[in-house]
Amino acid sequence: METCTEVIAVFLFRPKPLSLHPSAEAVCSRLHSLGFKAYVVGGAVRDSLRGLHPDDWDITTDAPPEEVEQAFTDTYPTGKEFGTISVKKGGMLLEVTTMRRDSDYSDMRRPDQVSYTRCIEEDLKRRDFTVNAIAYDPACGRFIDPYAGIKDIRRRCLRTVGDPSDRFAEDPLRMLRLLRFMATLQYRPSRKTWTAVEPSLIDTVSRERIADELSKLLTAAKPAKALEGMYDLGIMDRILPELAAGAGIAQGDRHHWDVLGHSIRATEAVKPELTLRLAALLHDIGKPPTYEEASDRIRFSQHEQVGSEMARRRLLKLRFRRSTADYVAHLILWHMFPIHPRSTDKALRRFAAKVGLDAVWDLLELRRADIMAMRFQPRQALEYGRTLARRLEEVLSQSNVYSTHDLAVGGEDIMQVLGIEPGPEVGRVLNYLLDQVLADPDKNQRDVLLALAREYYHGRKSS
């Protein structure tokens, strides 16, 4: 039988025993009662040591996957080929993985061969960063920390387990994970780890995995430093070249930063929702190809239209959902919307009809972040957004008609009253009626609309 000498962490200031979620504690206790080892590992340990309350708890054990399945009544073989069984306990799904050592990574993603071990240090050796390579034994309240991950948590430092060049070569996605942890943890990488990044390796990673990691990075509270690092390392040139092209592109007196710097700061200023963060990040990628120096100022003619299509293509290439790509492109297309707090009621209703009610509030949030990343006082941006939001709430509450489907008449009514066949003319009449109702919501009455339809149709015929 394999033996292993566990490396127990030695601390100047010993951390308190972790307070486990009852479900995690129950799973560990069950495995211990059957004579197996069970450790809490990964992000749950890291975040607990940071004073947080983790939602996800991962457990590693020397019990083979088949023994784990027998030990619990509600299990799922989510990664059984790699030793992972998901266990449902107390309403929570926990991943229980048999301790293992990995062989080479020929495909730069997964080990060629997996062999199980009873040595927790061997299991921790295969993990990416030291802050994720800490185990906790709830049976005796001990931390196993052979790579000084707890010290790195205190130092707010990101170091790879072992040689960083080897770790990145095994799975180049770890380079993006480094950036993601910079954003989510607000830690800084060690110099050795940072300089080991080889951006060309990211070309071997599937687009789906890149999109998933990028999404996690973007929805962190403060992604700006990580995005700047992505550019500095040369990774942005390879996964978001349209965004990287904004470096060095000046925008005139209203801006502190070039196009790239402005986009990064707008991203951090907007709410941490994926579509909003993507829209903020990519909202000005149409500026480099539309750059023009006029006599009075720098111009970016129709950059929103150009950028909208560029963003859609890039997101689809990264295998984001089509619905996500389409919505982000829609927000970018309209991010230069013409309304303001002094716009007429009709203009505000027309704006809502054109962009869709769901997009109205996202566009306001995007505009607020855009202004925050310009040469304005933050108070100005906040007040502008609040004033415009109040106007929109007031005006939009007066009507519920923002598309032809909301009208008190439909296509069948128009064809019957005007005696016309299905075709483009029906749509033209309905759009005219919608415009009338947007100007005056009280006109959305069947008799009024039919009278307006007759007047419009016969006026067109006689002209």
Labels describing this entry:
alpha+beta, Beta Polymerase, domain 2, Hydrophobic Seed Protein, 4 domains, seven-stranded mixed β-sheet, two-stranded antiparallel ribbon, disordered N terminus
Describe this structure in words.
- This protein is an alpha+beta fold and 463 residues long.
- It has four domains: 22-155, Beta Polymerase, domain 2 (2-Layer Sandwich); 156-239, Hydrophobic Seed Protein (Orthogonal Bundle), CATH 1.10.110; 270-398, no CATH class; 404-462.
- Helix content is 50%, strand content 10%.
- The chain has 23 helices and 13 strands.
- A hairpin with a 4-residue loop joins strand 12 (291-293) and strand 13.
- 38% of the residues are buried.
Task: Please state the structural category.
Answer: alpha+beta
Low-confidence regions: 1-12
- Quick one: overall form? elongated
Kindly estimate the percentage of residues that lie in beta strands according to DSSP: 5-15%
Annotated CATH architecture of the largest domain:
2-Layer Sandwich
Q: Give the C-level CATH assignment of the largest domain.
A: Alpha Beta
Bin the helical content.
40-55%
Overall domain count? 4
Radius of gyration: 29 Å
Helices and strands, with pairings:
Blueprint: H1 22-33, E1 38-41, H2 43-49, E2 58-61, H3 65-71, E3 75-79, E4 84-89, E5 92-98, E6 100-102, E7 114-116, H4 120-125, E8 135-137, E9 142-144, H5 149-155, E10 157-158, H6 164-170, H7 173-185, E11 188-189, H8 191-195, H9 207-218, H10 224-233, H11 236-239, H12 241-244, H13 259-269, H14 274-282, H15 287-290, E12 291-293, E13 298-300, H16 303-317, H17 322-334, H18 345-355, H19 357-372, H20 378-396, H21 411-418, H22 424-439, H23 446-462
Parallel strand pairs: 2-5, 10-11
Antiparallel strand pairs: 1-2, 1-8, 3-4, 4-5, 6-7, 8-9, 12-13
